[in-house]
Amino acid sequence: VQDAAPGQDPGSGGDEGSRQRWKEEISRILGEIQAPLSPLLLRLCHWLLPKLLTRLFLSVQLHRGQLEMVLRAARTPEVPLVFLCSHRSQVDALLLSFVLLSQRVGLPRVMVGAWTSPRLRSLLQRLGGIFLPSGMVHTRSARDEELPGAVLDMYVQELLQSRQPLILFLEEPPGSLQLADPARCWLLRVLRALRHRAVPDVLIIPVGIAYDVAP
Description:
Number of domains: 1
Number of strands: 5
Number of helices: 7
Order of helices and strands: HHHEHEHEHEHE
């Protein structure tokens, strides 16, 4: 991040005012990525989700053998879990998060691309959602080394080092069967964390979601 910051403004010096401006800009970028988790909202959501899901679905079926493998993987020391998921509906993230929480895998952080509603974005951030900084939704390699990309790299490395489960939905919109640009951007951060040896390894877990009738 320090290497990326001076490159943003060739005329900036190393004075205290300049450093303070960069700290403020980095804080702004972090604010776009995440918000403090809300324990109250998390408890409320954990109470409401079963009631919502029982109204949406007659049943939810899990493959027991595959679930046992996931639970064994979650007990692997110092190796974070990254769930790569097919995307079939807008309730996929709620459903998968509830399943992982109910199986004591941990509170997953859902990687999200762009979101048009600021209020809904703020709510999802407080429930564990993490978002790309503005301007990086359709990022290309020319932007990768700029300050938002450097902050995002370090943020993902911190998440992986703390072994928080990450959920990444590959398609956007749901059911498009095409790898979305936001998914490419998030995957690049995970690969860089491995390349820079921020974590010794990452367990990639593919997740397939299917509905008899998609909500």
